[in-house]
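Hey all, sorry for the wall of text incoming. These are the two entities for the joint prediction.
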Amino acid sequence: MNKLTYFPGCSAHGTSEEFDHTLKLVMKTLDVQMDEIPDWNCCGATSAHVMTENLAFALPLRNLVLAEKLENKTMGIACASCYARMKVTKKEMDEHPELAQRINSTIIEEGEYTGSVDVQSMLQYCYETIGLETIKSKVTKSLAGLKVACYYGCLLTRPKNVTHFDSPEYPMSMDYLMEALGAEAVEFDFKTECCGASFSISNTDVVHSLSGKILEMAKASGAHMIVVACPLCQSNLDMRQPDIAKMLKTKLDIPVMYFTQLMALAFGFPKEELRFPKHIVPVEDALSNIGKIQPAPEKAKKTKKAVEAESEVE
Amino acid sequence: MARVGVFTCFCGANIADFIDVPAVVEEAKKIKEVKISIEYKYMCSDPGQGMIRDAIIQHRLTSVVVAACSPRMHEKTFRKALSDAGMNPYLLEVANIREHSSWVHQKDKKAATEKASDLIRMAVAKSIANEQLHEISVPVTKRALVIGGGIAGIQAALDIADARIPVTLVEKSPSIGGRMAQLDETFPTLDCSQCILTPKMVDVASHPYIELIPYSEVIELDGFVGNYKAKIRKKASYVDFSTCTGCGACTQKCPVKVPNEYNMGIDKRRAIYTPFPQAVPNKPVIDAEHCTMLTKGKCGICAKVCEKGSINYEMKDEIIEREIGAVVVATGYDLWDPKPYEEYGVGRYKDIITSLEFERMVSANGPTGGVPQRPSDGKVPKNVVFIKCIGSRDEAKGIEYCSKICCMYTAKHAILLHHKVHDSHAYIFYMDIRAAGKGYEEFVKRAQVETAATYLRGRVSKIYKKGDKLMVRGEDAQIGQVVEVEADLVVLATAVIPNKDNPDLARLLGVSYDKYGYMSEAHPKLRPVETAKAGIFLAGCTQAPKDIPDTVAQASACAAKVCGLFAGDTMKKDPMISTVNNEYCSGCQNCVKVCPYQAIVTDEVPLGHGSKELRTVAKINEGVCQGCGSCVAICRSTAITLAGFTDPQIINEIVAI
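and here's what came out:
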């Protein structure tokens, strides 16, 4: 059994409960024990890191210190924003021992930071640590017939020198993950465009315009649904969708699901377990495409053909 | 008794503003060997040199100290002044009170003045131990090796050969012509590249003083200036050039198709091919990597159709040697691979091409007959977006430097697009327009006004697909807004990078190269075509990105340098080199290891006087030695002496402070 230190972040215990729940189902199937950090605190995202350096680092650092006590190698983070704060803090602390010592001194009662725990997003954990082969072996119900647009948002792969994961501009890990489940990942140009993030509350118009572009592009690319790995992306694209459709004077109706929901579905969990009623845009219609066509050809085959074409014999 | 003259220079304000020159002059007078100490505003000028000449004669000086700028700047100037006064030029010492004092201690005049006096004291002490030295003569092999047959190599070879000096021109590919042969029309006059280049290619092939060795590479260079020995590997062409008539039957019948390098892979060539119809030499070669006869033993069609029987599948690579006196390196450039621009969809969208691909498309002899086409569907594009600085001036993804030629060729592309597709429109995203050159700014104006190309100042952040169009989203910084342009075709002006073989070749030749792989010139301003290794010169993009006029000028400059080098039967060389005292040499060969110029070899001498047994000693090749002194420092038995920097000289300097 693999052991994983789990940092859910505030949304996993609230707005993205469906992410948290299905993630736990999936990890259980994959034989991963999730140890949630006891007494974890806010990562400081969106407000702390623009206010003071001290708070911006001290908040995530306390979580990192607490995580070290669990003695697991890896800390998996559900929310992309929490992931970014934790990852940036870890990088800064590891590269600047003096800074680490200064920040650590403010939370010294929690313990000393040693940098022993690796920080990964849950997408990265599935893709790199568990691996596609293992995931494929657990699929009992292929998602063949379902076309998905994988949306990564701005933080999962950025900045490149912090995350060291996938491409910052055109990532493919979630696409490959979806293909492992049998679904078809469509070519989707806006997979790392900004959704408007926390302007959702302070300047909703911005979110309407930015998320609107993403939704329209996903629709135009022929996807039945958008798959995400970030709670804020999900809420912007899903919750704001009816307003956006009104603004654009068009019909969108494109559901936005977490990658873990689709994994759970492919692993054979019943629909009742997947928290579909939590979605604003209903997901059932999109999911009815599953099983309608044969599995999509894998991309690797195409490239092989392209290689042959380069040196053809008449 | 030594009689030293000290001549201190103001260097205008460079020295005088930060050093109390009269005080320094007075201080020097206190040294007992100093018979005259005077100052002048510009010691390097004719009156300044005149003061030195007069003083040498009047005061019967035995050595001279000039306190001025770095010896790198004017040592030669002052040595000549000594010679003119009948004195051995190596009795000069330069005290560098500018770079070593006034420029670096501008905030403390008192300390700078004291340091200047110290430097002069040291130089005076050293000069007292200076010995008369004489220039060395080295024999010269009057043949030049030119590496690379692009426009730089062609021009250098022709200019040298026109001076009746034999040239060996080695070209890696089957034909000379290089990048310029791939160009359609050239800025800023729009004259056809082929029309101005191909006659020069023919001249190379027919010139009595040029030996053209195509499809070959230099694999070894030994020796020193005037006396190099080069090994050249002639790649097996599998075609006997002496009987081949270049009829082309083989290239038509060959069944194997391979992406055509000359057309940037837009179309296919055969496995036996001539790179392009105007190739020189116009003889085919077999691409051993793709020929099925050579890889699998199946086919043999080219041998069957060849009436002359010129095909020989058994041909092997051949190593030939040439003795040469100088080398001109002209290895040209490559283009940066724009793959890291993932946000543009490079690699995913067929209709994003590089500027050289566009160049091939608009070329009259190109794969699309001179009219650009979209690679995706073959349609003629109407809206074309050109994006400059792809990889250039981009520290995040590419390289820091400006590629120099892209602003101009992009303006040219806009004009050519308009010529070929009248109802088209060019949009050009740029960071700056760098059009410094004769007729260049006017040419860009022509693109803007005559062709009505839309110049948008700003970077493109994203390209995405909408139907069969590409949407190019970028900033128009002049109106401060994000703009989106609907494009049929996107052309990326990718950065110029050095030939990928440059670092390997540089190491093989023993010349230095920079972090990008460009070979380094000896001085960025005053010795732009020489390398630090005597007798090796740089032409064209081997040294830095440049356009055709600059490349041709640099190539001709190389030719002038080669001709100058070969002007006499022997070459003069600085005598400040190392010598070995065999009596002291233990033969440990540490000096052989540390010598950066491979100037030290070993020799056998009798063990004792009249002995038949031999022992090993170090031997310095005076033609190669550059006088760096590394061997002197490593020699544990003090057997090596560097002329001009002998132990008494150095000890005198140390004692003086």
